[in-house]
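Researcher: Here's the sequence for the chain we discussed earlier.
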Amino acid sequence: MTDTQHVTPAVTDGPVHDWFSLSYCNYQVMPRTLMQSMPTEWQERMVACLSELHDAFQHVPQAEVYQVHAATEHIVREMTEAELKRAGIEADWYGGEVFPGDEATAAEFNKWRAQHETDAPTYSRDGQELDPHERVLLPTSDPVPNYNRGRTFIEPVIEVPR
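Model: Thanks. This is the structure I predict for it:
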C-alpha cells in the first residue's frame, strides 16, 4: 500500500458500533425516567438525534411497538433448578428415558437411575435443545422507577469537563 492509498473503514464500524462494544445487542433500550431527568439542553439534543434517525429510516418497515422487560442474564449450565423452571427450561439427565413405575421402591428407582443417568443433562425449552453455555434471560423487577407521567425525577450526576 502506498502513502496515497488508505483503507476506509466501513460506515458500520463507527462510534455506535464501538459503543455497543463486543455485545450482540440489536437494540438500545433507554429508561424514560432517566432521560427526562437529564438537563433540558441534553434532552433537546437527544430529541433532535432521535428525530433525525426516525426521518432517515421512514422507508424501512419497522414493528409497530416493542415489549421490553427488565431481566437478568444467566448461563444455562450455571442456573439453579428454580431458575431453570422459571425460564421454562428442562434439564434431562436421563437421555429422554422416563422412569416407568409410579409405585417403585427407592432401590428400584436408584437402579434405574444408575442405568440411565448421563454425565451432563441436555437442556431444552419449547422443544428446542439449548447449548449449556447459552445465555438466557430471567425476568426481574425494573430497578428504575416508572416515569409516572413525567413526575418522577432522579438527580443525574453530571461530570463537568475541565
